[in-house]
Amino acid sequence: MVRPTTNNSLRSIINPVIFVLSAFLVTSCYYDNEEYLYPELPGGQCDTTGVTYSAFVAPLLASNCNSCHNEATPNGNVITSTYTGLKNAVNSGVFRKAINHESGTSFMPKGGNKLPSCELLKIDAWINQGAPQN
């Protein structure tokens, strides 16, 4: 008995279509963090001029760090809720390494995502100015 040829023709069309749809579905589930893919570069969209402790650094730490790193609960023996405590962490190098997720330190914020690259650039600019209490 001879098989009908329409079944083979239909299969030859359906198999590639299923393959293409499967490939599309797999790649459409791919997720990347835009901050990671397109970090702002110095001189780009991130303005790092005029970064001060009182206007930028202290409020950023208050919303991201101070709940765990204050005088009452100085986790990791790091205090970010006071200028003196922060300056000690900056001078030791542990602060910059932790917020930039460098090896050899606990990544901060603990259990959270790395701070946006523009905020990290602003902190670096402040540290490079000598981390003044301004």
Radius of gyration: 26 Å
- Total domain units: 2
Strand segment count: 0
- The whole-number mean of residue pLDDT values reads 83
What coarse outline follows from CA principal-axis ratios?
elongated
Biggest β-sheet strands, sense, barrel:
none
Instruction: Give the low-confidence spans.
Output: none
- Strand portion: under 5%
Share of helix among residues? 40-55%
Q: What is the element string, with H for helices and E for strands?
A: HHHHHH
Distance between the termini: 92 Å
Question: What can you see in these coordinates?
Answer:
By secondary structure, this protein is mainly α. It has two domains: 5-35; 40-128, no CATH class. It has six helices and no strands. Helix 3 crosses helix 6. It is elongated, with a radius of gyration of 26 Å.
Give me a quick take on this structure.
With 134 residues, the chain is mainly alpha-helical.
What characteristics describe this protein?
single chain, 134 residues, mainly alpha, 51% helix, 0% strand
